């Protein structure tokens, strides 16, 4: 019996890997191994790290797992969508199988995440200017009103906790350009957060349509469903792990 794929959870801007702790506990209880990554650009001093740095860091983590023969479901949130899209180039399961190699990324899941066309930047997608809750100061970008824009649907005490855990992001990541469109070669899914105040649902809808995937899920959630409804996020990932496992078996059978 094939082992469960490893779920790699990639956060957005201003957040560290700790945001996924509850979701990871839930996934573990369902027999789904996971890791959560961190971006070098988040909280860095000096704030000089770029999108290229973040992509290279995530790619190294993915390669380390794939070289062990593991199949990966890559879950990207918000800014993490830009990072993950670039990091998976050449790491898709099907492409590696054609080279006689085991392991690979079997699915990319965009969870209220930026799926950006090649050559475009995050700032391009924001219309060329920072949003009202983003405050740029020199090489730093801070998140203001995180509870209102990022996680308005969790209890007040939790809002205070997670607001206190937000940190700065390097301004350079906003101008870095996307280098790869994985949806052409790797199966994808999109989780639309219908009560998102940071990344408007109509924009999410447009990006999901661009992926040309039938695996579109909807949650009545803020921008951070892994905080407000981790069980429902786990339900989706468990379902996708089952689907991706079948696809992976088909690839292996055709070697």
Task: Explain the overall architecture.
It is a single chain. The chain is α/β, with parallel strands linked by helices and 255 residues long. Strands 2-1-3-4-8-9 form a 6-stranded parallel β-sheet, with helices on both faces. A hairpin with a 2-residue loop joins strand 5 and strand 6. Helices cover 37% and strands 18% of the residues. The chain has one domain: Alpha/Beta hydrolase fold, catalytic domain (Rossmann fold). It contains 10 helices and 9 strands. The C terminus is likely disordered. The longest helix is centred in the C-terminal third of the chain and has 24 residues. This is AB hydrolase-1 domain-containing protein.
Secondary-structure map with pairings?
Elements: E1 6-10, H1 21-29, E2 34-36, H2 51-66, E3 71-78, H3 80-87, H4 93-98, E4 104-113, H5 122-125, E5 134-137, E6 140-143, H6 146-149, H7 156-164, E7 169-170, E8 188-193, H8 201-211, E9 216-219, H9 225-228, H10 230-253
Parallel strand pairs: 1-2, 1-3, 3-4, 4-8, 8-9
Antiparallel strand pairs: 5-6, 6-7
The first-to-last residue Cα distance is: 18 Å
- Share in helix: 25-40%
How many helix segments? 10
As a percent range, the share of strand residues is 15-25%
Q: Summarize the helix and strand pattern as letters.
A: EHEHEHHEHEEHHEEHEHH
- Find the structural class using helix and strand composition: alpha/beta
Weakly predicted, low-confidence segments = 246-255
What's the structural domain tally? 1
How are the strands of the largest sheet arranged?
2-1-3-4-8-9
Number of strands: 9
**CATH superfamily (homologous) name:** Alpha/Beta hydrolase fold, catalytic domain
Task: Write the CATH architecture name.
Answer: 3-Layer(aba) Sandwich
> How would you describe the shape?
globular
Domain AB hydrolase-1: 7-235
Protein name: AB hydrolase-1 domain-containing protein
Pfam family, one: Abhydrolase_6
InterPro entries: AB_hydrolase_1, AB_hydrolase_fold, Sec-Metab_Biosynth_Hydrolase
């Amino acid at each position: 019996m094939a082992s469960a794929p490893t779920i790699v959870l990639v956060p957005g801007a201003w957040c560290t890997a700790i945001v996924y702790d509850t979701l990871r506990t839930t996934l573990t209880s369902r027999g789904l191994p996971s890791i959560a990554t961190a971006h070098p650009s988040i909280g860095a001093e000096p704030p000089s790290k770029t999108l290229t740095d973040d992509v290279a860091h995530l790619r190294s983590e993915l390669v380390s797992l794939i070289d062990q023969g593991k199949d990966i479901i890559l879950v990207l949130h918000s800014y993490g969508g830009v990072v993950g899209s670039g990091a998976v180039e050449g790491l898709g399961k099907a492409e590696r199988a054609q080279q006689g190699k085991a392991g690979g990324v079997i699915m990319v899941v965009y969870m209220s995440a930026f799926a950006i066309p090649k050559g475009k930047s995050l700032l391009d997608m924001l219309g060329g200017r920072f949003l009202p809750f983003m405050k740029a100061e020199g090489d730093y970008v801070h998140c203001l009103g995180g509870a209102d824009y990022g996680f308005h649907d969790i209890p007040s005490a939790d809002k205070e906790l997670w607001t206190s855990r937000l940190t700065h992001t390097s301004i350079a990541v906003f101008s870095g350009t996307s280098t790869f469109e994985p949806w052409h070669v790797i199966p994808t899914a999109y989780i639309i957060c219908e009560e998102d105040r940071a990344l408007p649902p109509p924009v999410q809808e447009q990006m999901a349509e661009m992926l040309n995937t039938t695996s579109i899920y909807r949650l009545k959630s803020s921008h951070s469903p892994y905080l407000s409804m981790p069980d429902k996020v786990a339900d989706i990932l468990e379902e996708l792990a089952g689907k991706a496992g079948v696809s992976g078996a088909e690839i292996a059978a055709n070697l």
